Amino acid sequence: MKRPHELRIPGPLGQRQRHWRALWLRSLLPPLTLLGLVLSRLVDLALALLLLILLSPLLLARSLIARLRSGQVFATEPLVGRFRAPFERLRFADEAPGQGLPVLLNILRGDMAIAGPRPLTAAEAARVGVEAAVRFTVRPGVFSPYRLKSRTGVAYAPEAQIDRDYAYGQSARGDAGLVVRSLIGEVLGGGEAPTPPILEFFGVPIVNTTMPEAVDWIAARAGGGDPALLAFVNPDCLNIAYVDAEYRRILLDAARVLPDGIGIHIGCRMLGVALQANVNGTDLFPQLCERAAQTGLGLFLLGARPGIADAVAANMRAQFPGLRIDGVQDGYFDPADEDAVIDGINASGAAILLVAFGVPRQEKWLARNQERLTLPVRMGVGGLFDFYSGRIPRAPVWMREIGLEWTWRLMQEPGRMWRRYVIGNPLFLYRVWRQARGGETS
Ligand code: UDP
């Protein structure tokens, strides 16, 4: 038989040791963070110097051109830096390629870093509230997390929030990743282009909007009015619409079609227009849940394998207290039970129905049952429930920022996805290229 003290030994002692080890490690953190900051400043200095030396012939030539064309070498822009200290950002005085290169001198002087929040004007800085003021504890950067996200259409949170998160989580590794992703983002983002309210791919009109506006629109329509069908389209969907007349007709009749993914972004560039934001269902869903929880609108989740929609409901209720999910139903019910399923949806009191059967099955189901359903907003959401139930992990944020979410999905389900991406993506780009040249559009 064990004596009482022997029974007690493993637990409390083990815990105490872990506690001390954690405390010891934590006491190392501030000096380590300080070291990290010093190191990242040294890296900035070294890189700026190296670039200045390597580019010196170009910089000299560029200075001469600026001088000849505008009578002076540099123009300055008054901005606000670390600890709200004012500084002058340098540019070449004339508008021509390479105009921003003198910013390397700002990095040398310590006004700016390579990575950091965007430098603000005095007026912009005055508008930054206390909750985001932590952004002023780090040097403003040439590459900023907000610019990266807005360039690739995934800046769903306000800039102040993105900057605050950056300042709290800054690390040398994070900064290196930010610079690499920004360089890729700059290539993807392209130059300035007009932003038409409607984008058109193969004759399918897509609303060119932002995430907050899309959420406002859904909430307004969920409040009453004509029933509205909402569809999200990515290149795969547009490829299907190219050959499937029924699905195409549904998209043309839908209240709104929204742009989903990097493929649409690239397609827009090929057509010489700018996409405002990547308004895909997966990123919209938590924002919609937040709004629904605030306004009391109820959701009904229909689709995916048994148990998945229940898990989504539990996760979202935990994340957004007060969220009404008025019903769930898996997507593998017997067709003979369809009447009962529709009666259940109508009786649930929900205002927004999310259907996850995959494209184009979900849109066809919604169109076929459009008169029998009574709730005001219906939307097809594809694999969304699989992500929010945790069944399929979503691509990490850094992959989404550089438009590589599709490669993640391809790696996860190669058997099912290779046709969609390996064949579908080039086919889509070819069709857009033909459209851009003024060829066939449908
Ligand atoms: N699904 C369903 N019923 C079916 C066939 C599929 O509920 O009869 C679900 C499936 O479980 C998955 C979703 O529909 O959750 C389709 O996901 P996919 O990733 O293919 O969506 P897409 O990429 O087409 O948006």
Give structural notes:
With 442 residues, the chain is of the alpha/beta class. The protein is built from 20 helices and 12 strands. It has helices spanning 4-8, 10-54, 56-70, 103-109, 122-126, 145-151, 159-169, 172-189, 211-222, 235-243, 245-253, 262-271, 281-295, 308-319, 338-347, 361-368, 384-388, 397-401, 405-412, 414-436, and strands at residues 74-80, 86-92, 113-115, 141-143, 198-201, 204-207, 228-233, 256-259, 298-303, 324-329, 352-356, 377-380. Strand 3, helix 5 and strand 4 (141-143) form a beta-alpha-beta unit. Helix 2 (10-54) packs across helix 4 (103-109), helix 9 (211-222) packs across helix 13 and helix 10 packs across helix 11 (245-253). 37% of the residues are buried. Bound molecules: uridine-5'-diphosphate. Uridine-5'-diphosphate binds next to helix 17. The site of uridine-5'-diphosphate has 13 residues, from helix 17.
